[in-house]
Every structure is written in structure tokens, then in C-alpha cells.
Amino acid sequence: MEHIFKGKWITDDEFCELKPRNVFHRQLEQLSLPCNEHRDRHILFRRKFGCENTPQKAVLYISADDHYKLYINGKYIAEGPAPSYHFRYNYNVLDVTEHLKKGENTVVVHTLYQGLINRVWQSGDNRHGLILDLEADGNTILSTDESFLTSPHSAYTETGICGYDTQLLEEYDSRSAQADFYLPEYDDSLWKNAHINKNADHTLKMQESFMLVTENILPVNSYTADDRYIYDFGANYVGYLNVTAKGKCGGEIIIRCAQETDENGYPRYELRANCRYEEKWILTEGESRLDQFDYKAFRYAELIIPENTEITDISLTARHYPFSLRNNLKPAYAKNDRLKKIWELCVHTQKYGVQEVIQDCMEREKGFYLGDGCYTVLTNMILTNDDSMVRKLIDDAFSSDIITDTLVTCLNCSFMQEIAEFPLILVYTVLWHYCYTGDKKYLSENYPKVKKLLDAYRREYEHEYLLYDLDKWCVVEWPYNYRHGYDADLSEGKLCHTAHISINAYYIRAILTANEIADILNIPKYRDEKPLFDTFYHTFYIKEQDLFRDSKGSEHISLVGNSFVYGFDLCPDDIFKEKFLSMLCKKGISSLSLFCTFPVLMGLAMDHRYDLLEAMLLDKGAWCRMLDEDATTTFEGWGKDTKWNTSLFHLTMSYAAVFLADMDQNNIFKS
Questions:
Q1: What is the domain partition of the chain in residue ranges?
Q2: Quick one: how far is CA 278 from the chain centroid?
Q3: Which CATH number is associated with domain 10-154+173-208?
Q4: Centroid of chain to Cα 539
């Protein structure tokens, strides 16, 4: 049951009169949104309240836009909500019983309005605020109103942007008057009263996925070089650097974070993913505590400190989605040490990479990508027996139909991108969820959404049983140097007029999947697939070679184009399979990348070709190359130098774990 808030959305002077700005549009629409105003705003809220008795049960309902960190009686409690659209904006439900006491209590909330148009949040839209209700033993004892006090947090100063306008780099100043804002005894006498946000238009929805958990990670190694202190936390994590230092007022510490070291053993803070992880910390007199709000993906930290300064404590707070391997999981790596290491690499990546949403890479974009995400959430569900992330992806993806009924690529954000294949992968994910969970009710709820999506593709892009003239980008395989010369114009930002095999294979597989769902639900199938099959084979199949061409009118044959035919079980006969597998074995799985590799491995699993499946997983240029390059999390594009902006913390490639799990239990690719 949804909570009905008694509290109001509150904000400060700057935001209370602002009207929300629409950030939604189709990708090919030329729309420029300014984002130099109202950005990097750290806004604090405080309220003291009394409890006549220690509550037996206390529940806090809370949300903030863009993000919050909550403190009660001086203790950090949680952060949230998970990124979401304003028309179904998440709120969190927290049991705070153990944090309240008889007498006076203090609740403090640190909010951030980032203000950028990017893949992280639906920001840049002039929406900011906090809303909460606190119930104790069934009675509402606190709600947001103008009695809350507010102040900007003056410790943060923007110093740059990293990634794709992803994250603001900041100088943190421990001399700030707000440095101890979270403590109950903090003097807030100069703070102002909050304002009701007069233009708040959020429609609130309880966050059904779990809240983040945190772990304190200590360095496994540290060393000094001149004025540098270098710390190694043993593996890549996502989170915050915690440092306590003693020094002189005004002393400056340079903070650099990195995922690897350079040839001199120093942290490489200019990441391969084109993020420069360098910031400054200004000390107060005596002891100072670093408080960085936004997270990074890193393993190493380097501190360059002034004279007469001492680092008294350092750790890394790793934040991640709750993760526990399911009890009956039997990894199929047997006695092969290499497969075991690949398994451990994928498990670590899943455990520490999955956040409030599924992101493709943890530093460059932090984006909730639909296509990549489908494979990542499937892996997460198989590893943990928890389907909450799968459901979140499905629900959030279908909710983007308010922007376009053919859905968008990056979910719950203000950056508008459309990739044609991604919504079609969502259709398979709906079926995969049922095959794993047996939840027919959820399948039934999603089937009308599947039909609506496929109807939209049919209306917009299908001509004589083929898809072409797409106003969505077709990525096919990424990066482009892994496309094997795929013969179709796939330039982003323009119409793709060509009828090519990749998108049509995705489309037919989605229609077949919709028909499978209809059969499970014992209702008439979505549509007759035979005319599509006939046209597909007539257009793309070269009988003389028993392989498929890339595009209509072309004679070019690629491993990429045929990968989708094989992986999506669209093979005309066993002759094609053998020719394809011969080509695959000759070129190797590492000649493909993330979007072709999964279907190929899926096809091998469906054919029970576990010999070839194992051989592909052990390809020296694929996951084994990551291990040889000292990976602790899965890479993008197989290796450090295979891409111009390689992420060394790329969640998608952890999907190898799906195929290392016991296939008798987990071969869910056929209903």
C-alpha cells in the first residue's frame, strides 16, 4: 500500500519559486537545455523533535530530489532514493526504531541537486526538495513543513566535470561553518526556515527495490613517496574515500583516486574512461574529516599533503546493492583454475558494482542502460536468487513510454538517447524472469506492455515485414572496431534507412518471445511470425554459402551479423550452425564484444555445446585477457587498450557468470 504523505515538499529560497522544466524529448529532436544555472547545490535540512517515550516501532518515509543522505542523532542512516522519473518518483521506507530515543532527537538531511543533463539522474529540471513523514507507534510525529531549518552547505565548490557530464569534481573545505551539520549539538541558529516548494509536481511511488548497504574497506597496502601517501584497497570498489587528518588551518591536500597504477607505481588518476579523479581538500585547524558526497569507482588513493600534516585514519566506504550468493548455486568451473578466477571476477563485479540501478560503467556514464542492463540483471538474479533488480529494470523501462512508446535507452535520467535493439532485449527479459521465477502474475501484467511496445515498432518501422528507416541508433556491436566490417550505415544521430540483419533478428526474436508468453498465458499468440521469417530468409540468407548477408542488397557476410541468427535460434538448418561455429572458432569470441558475445554464448547453452562454451570462456583474448591485465572487476572491450575510453569497471561483462553457473539449473533461455 502506498503511503500518503502528510509532509510537503520543502526547499530553500533558490528553488521555491522555480517552475519544473521538461527535459524529455526524442533523441533526434534538436533541443538545447541550459545547465549552468542552479547546479552543484548541496542543501541541508535540520529539525529537532521530541519523543515522549522510546518508540516500539518507528518508520520514516522519505524522498528527495536529486539525492539525499540521512542522519539521525548524529549517525548516518541511509541514502537514496534510487533514480526515478518525477512522475513515479521513488520514496524510501526506513525502520529507524533503534535510532530514536526518549526526549529530544535530531533529524538532518543532506540533499544534492546536481543540475546536469546526464545519465545519472533526472536532473537539470529545476526540481529540488525534501519530503518526509516520521511515524512512531502508528502516529505521525514529524512531517516536512516550514518549521524545518535549511542552509546551503558551503564546503563544496565545483572544480570541474568528469565523464560524460556525469559527475562534478569538488573542493571540500573543512573550515566551512556547515562541516559538522549532522551533529545534534551543532549550532543552527543562523539557518533559515525552509519553504514549501510551490511547484512540486512529483507523483510518489514506494521504492520496491532494496536500499544500498555499505562496507568499510581498509587498505591492504600503503606506502609513501616524498609528500605522497598511496593506498591500495586491494580491488576496484564503488564508494567514498574516508580520511581524517591533523594539520594547520588552510592546509591543502590533493586527493587522487584511480583504478590502476602507472609505470612508476603512482595511481593513474586520469582514468582510461576519460575521468580525471583529482580533487582538493582544505583543512581546518587541528583535526579535519573529509566528507565527499558523490561516489567514484576506484582501487587506489593518493594524498599529496603539506608539511606538518598527519593522516590519522583512512578507509573506503563501498556502497552496493545487497548481495548474497544463493545456497544451491553450483558453479560449473570444476577443477579449471582459470574458469574459477573468471567466476570470482564476475562475482566481485556483481557484488560491488550493482548500485541503486544497474549501470553499464561505474565512472564514465553511471547510466542505467536498458540493453546492457538486461544481461546484468539476469546475471544478478541467477547469482542471488533475488529478482528485485530484474523487476526494477522491467518496470522502469516500460514507464519510459511517456517519452516515446518505443522506449528510451538510458532510464530514469534527463539524457535522451534511443538505441533500437535495447527495448527488444527487454521483451526477452520479461520471459527470462518468468522462466526463472515462475511468476505468471507478473508475466501477465507485463504482456500488454510487450504488445504495446511491439505494436509501436510495427507501426513506426516495419515495412513489408522488415524493419528499416529507424530514427533510433542501431549499435549492433560496440565498439565499432568489433563489427567485422558490418555493411550498414549505423551512424548515430541520423535515420538508418537500411534493412539490416541485426535489428531484424532482434525483432523476430522479440515477436517469437511474445508468442511464447501468450502460449504460457494460454491466450492467442501475438501475431503470425511466418511472413517475417520468410521475408527474413529471402532477404538475408545466401543459400550458396549457407550464411547470412549483413544488409539488404549487400553481399557482405560478417561474424557479427550471423551471431544474432545463431544466438536467437533463427537458424535455417544444422548446416548453417556448423558453418557459423567454424567461423566462430576460427575468429574467436574475443573478435566480438559485448552485444554479440551474449547471444553466441546463449546459443551454445541452448544447443548444450558446453565444450565450445568453455572454450569461448577460456579465449585468451576475452575474460582471460582481463585476468592477465590484473582485473579485479570486468573490463569493457576485453582489455585496457582495446577502446579509446575503456571502463575498467564495466558491469555487463560479468554475464560470463551466467554461463559458468550450473546449466542444468540455469539454462532458462528456452521456456
A1: 10-154+173-208, 214-320, 337-666
A2: 23
A3: 2.60.120.260
A4: 37
Arch. (CATH architecture) of 337-666: Alpha/alpha barrel (1.50)
Prior bond of 267 cis (ω within 30°)? no
CB neighbour burial string for 287-321, b if at least 16 within 10 angstroms, e if fewer:
ebbbbbbbbbbbbbbbbbbeeebebeebbbbbbbb
Name the nearest CA neighbour of 310 among 181, 224, 183: 224
> pLDDT tens digit string along 167-218?
999 999 999 999 999 999 999 999 999 999 999 999 999 999 999 999 999 9
Beta strands in 1-113 (DSSP E): 10-11, 41-51, 58-65, 67-72, 75-80, 89-95, 103-113
593, 625 Cβ separation under 8 angstroms: no
Mind listing the pLDDT tens digit for each residue in 243-281? Answer: 999 999 999 999 999 999 999 999 999 999 999 999 999
The x, y and z cell numbers of residue 619, run together, are 579465449
How far is Cα 289 from Cα 281, in angstroms, rounded to an integer?
Answer: 10
Q: CA geometry: angle at 67 spanning 135 and 169, to 5°?
A: 150
C-alpha cell at 560: 557479427
Q: Are 117 and 415 in contact (CB under 8 A)?
A: yes
If one counts every other C-beta atom within 10 angstroms of the C-beta of residue 42, the result is: 19
Looking at residue 576, what DSSP letter applies?
H
Burial of 265 (C-beta count, 10 Å sphere; 0-12/13-18/19+): exposed
Radius of gyration of the chain from its Cα atoms, rounded to whole angstroms: 26
User: Alpha-carbon distance 370 to 364, whole Å?
Assistant: 16
- What DSSP string runs through 382-429? HHHS--HHHHHHHHHHHHGGGT-TT--SB-SSS----BTHHHHHHHHH
- The grid coordinates listed for 65 are 530530489
Q: What is the DSSP letter of 130?
A: E
Grid cell listed for 2:
502506498
Quick check: do 214-320 and 337-666 share a fold?
Answer: no
- Bridge partner residues of 49 (DSSP): 105
Instruction: Name, in order, each residue with C-beta under 8 angstroms of 296's C-beta and a sequence gap of 6 or more.
Output: 167, 238, 239, 240, 241, 257, 277, 363
Q: Which CATH number fits domain 214-320: 2.60.120.260, 3.40.50.10140, 1.10.287.1080, 2.60.40.10?
A: 2.60.120.260
